[in-house]
Amino acid sequence: MLFSIQTSLNISNYTDYMQRQVLICRHAEAVEHFSLRPDFERELTKSGVLQAHQTGHWIRDNFSKVDVIVTSPSKRTSATALILADKLYYDDQHIMYVPELYNAGEPKLLEALSSLPEKAKTILIIGHNPGITQLARHLLNKHIAYLEPANVLAIKLELEKWEDIHVNQGTLLLHNMQHIL
After folding, report:
1. DSSP of 162-181, one letter per residue?
2. Confidence of residue 6 (pLDDT cuts 50, 70, 90)
3. Statement: residue 5 has pLDDT above 70
4. Contact at 8 Å (CB) between 134 and 80?
5. Whole-number pLDDT of residue 169
6. N or C, which end of the chain is more exposed by having fewer CB within 10 Å?
7. Where are the chain's structural domains?
8. Which superfamily, per CATH, for 20-175?
């Protein structure tokens, strides 16, 4: 007797399930670092506030929503995150402030991404150079220019779980950089 196994798995749904997007953003322009004020306390300049608003509009115009916003808790990244959240109609009470992301390198950024909830499909991570650019280079497996203030690039990843991000290469979807190479 021949058995037939019926499954409700639709291959196109499975592909959608595995597809995730990481929007990697450098904080907007901050005031210069002076020795009397700790780097962590640097605020956005007026130009930086405008940059963050423009970047928020760009993200909203190109992506319907983000599921999670993750940021360093420094003043400049927090301010950038709050402006972007407002432009994206994202509840700022749900922004994830991760102390380890302050001036973090690529390994810490990957660690933060690998612990994201599985239901999150599109995430926005806001951080500092050089780590944020190193993260983009790692995920794209190619050299790109350093992200300037308020630059963002979107990378598509085929991942079943965020914890697999360490061994995955993504595809560049979009960016707002003047020069990427």
Report:
1. GGGGGG---EEEEE--S---
2. very low
3. no
4. no
5. 86
6. N
7. 20-175
8. Phosphoglycerate mutase-like (3.40.50.1240)
